[in-house]
Design goal:
Elements (H helix, E strand, L loop, with lengths): L1 E8 L4 H5 E8 L3 E3 L6 E10 L5 E6 L2 E6 L5 H6 L8 H4 L2 E9 L5 E8 L2 E12 L3 E3 L5 E3 L6 H5 L7 H21 L2 E7 L2 H4 L13 H8 L6 E2 L2 H7 L13 H14 L4 H7 L3 E7 L13 E7 L6 E5 L8 E5 L5 E9 L3 H11 E8 L6 H7 L3 E7 L15 H10 L3 H12 L10 H6 L3
Parallel strand pairs: 12-13, 12-20, 18-19, 18-20
Antiparallel strand pairs: 1-3, 1-9, 2-4, 4-7, 5-6, 5-8, 8-9, 10-11, 14-15, 16-17, 17-19
């Protein structure tokens, strides 16, 4: 579990009364507790006012002590004034190794021993690194995520040559296959919320952020869509305070770019299709991480119940999810396959009004060729989120959604498996019976 070190003094004046200077080096300010049984260790250096001889720590009533006797020439060289070069500075280091596993230490009290009496400095405690950072006006943003979204934003992450090669190889193979199969395709990169609303984000954006590096890589290819300018134009309508994803309105903005890029008749669609939205108070995926989780207004797309039907859903969460939509009243009788990420969930809503058959596959833009063989689509949309740039999708022909599903099903309990079977059995598998293929892919 990744944790953050925090310190509460025993009393406000205790630090200045007892020490001139100090530093705790282990555990580090950002500390990862391990479950391998490794002992909890504390080390550092201290210059005490009263020439303390030992450092003492108390962990849940168990006391450990270590002498302040380790030479630290680096500290002596770094300090100036009356402490520089003196013997007490040279021997200011300490190290205490306990017999308590690191993973079992939620907090510890620390003291200096002077004349055999402990003088308590205060308490260090550990807490989970927050996955949420609160920006201006209460806007919530992702933080401490595995994709290092903050580091990507401020320009600390450079796309290396191997990663660039992998991305170009992925596109080259897929483009060749698309030409052979005769379908049109587009790649949509959904911008992170912080790029659309930088005025609320507590970090400065670098021109060398990773989405910019990615866009530069494919700037000559019109099949790549990064709708940052269009989303920024409407700002707070396109994203919402409590979630990492765009609103349904933001998804619709991206939808218009996709349809126009395909060269399809967007004007005729909007003339004949009444588009409406509602405002809902909702807990987003960021707000849910707070206690208590706040509600925020979200713009939601209104779709008539009679307009479309979900004719298959394997009810897998995230990667491995397959949902099929059929709409006989759609604007065009064509098939679209979406190999997307979580942002495609709201994107498929307007897409299902435009295309009569939409197959949504949650694969973060990795392509399963068996689905292309089965559907023979007119159009294919590859979709990923900007923070996922650091991981290239699987090279064309190497990805199997069935393997992903099988791995997830193996991790289910017997009860979860029975519930999933019941949900999947409720679908009629569409008028064309084409969805039996997806039932077979999701067999338990």
């Amino acid at each position: 579990m990744t944790t953050l070190r925090n310190f509460i003094p025993a009393k406000a004046e205790s630090i200045s009364e007892l020490i001139h200077a100090w530093n705790l080096e282990e555990p580090a300010p950002s500390f990862e507790s391990r479950d391998d049984g490794s002992p909890f260790t504390i080390s550092g250096w201290v210059l005490s006012v009263h020439k303390a001889t030992h450092v003492l720590i108390d962990i849940a009533g168990r006391r450990f002590s270590g002498p302040i006797d380790i030479e630290r020439t680096d500290v002596a060289e770094a300090l100036s004034g009356e402490f520089k070069g003196t013997r007490p500075v040279l021997t200011c280091g300490f190290s205490i190794v306990t017999n308590i596993p690191s993973s079992d230490v939620p907090s510890f009290d620390i003291a200096l021993t002077h004349d055999d009496q402990p003088c308590w400095l205060g308490t260090f405690f550990f807490e989970e690194l927050s996955k949420v950072q609160i920006g201006r006006d209460g806007w919530l943003f992702l933080d401490n995520d595995t994709n290092n979204s903050v580091e990507q934003y401020v320009g600390d992450v450079i796309l290396d040559d191997q990663l660039k090669h992998d991305w170009m190889d992925y596109i080259r193979h897929f483009s060749t296959a698309a030409n052979e199969r005769g379908f049109e395709w587009r790649f949509l990169l959904a911008p992170g919320k912080e790029y659309v609303l930088p005025e609320y984000y507590p970090h400065a954006c670098s021109p060398f952020n990773t989405p910019n590096q990615f866009v530069e890589l494919f700037k000559a290819d019109a099949r790549f869509i990064y709708p940052l300018a269009e989303l920024t134009h409407d700002k707070a309508l396109t994203y919402w305070k409590g979630d990492t994803h765009w609103t349904d309105y933001g998804a619709y903005v991206a939808f218009t770019r996709i349809i126009s890029s395909f060269g399809l008749d967007m004007e005729s669609f909007e003339r004949h299709m009444k588009i409406s939205y509602t405002i809902e108070q909702s807990k987003g995926d960021l707000a849910e991480k707070l206690d208590p989780p706040p509600l925020h207004p979200r713009i939601a797309f209104s779709i008539p119940d009679s307009a479309l039907a979900v004719t298959f859903n394997n009810h897998i969460n995230n990667n491995g999810k397959i949902v099929v939509f059929e709409n006989p009243s759609a604007h065009m009788h064509r098939t679209l396959v979406v190999f997307g990420s979580s942002s495609s969930d709201s994107l498929v809503k307007p897409l299902t009004l435009f295309f009569s058959r939409v197959v949504q596959v949650h694969s973060s833009a990795s392509v399963d060729t068996t689905i292309l063989d089965h559907e023979r689509p007119d159009h294919v949309l590859l979709q990923s989120n900007s923070r996922f740039i650091l991981e290239c999708p699987a090279v064309y022909g190497t990805y199997s959604i069935k393997s992903v599903i099988a791995e997830k099903l193996q991790r289910l309990t017997d009860l979860e498996r029975e519930r999933l079977k019941f949900k999947v059995a409720n679908y009629q598998f569409g008028t064309s019976h084409k969805n039996n293929f997806y039932k077979a892919l999701s067999t338990m």
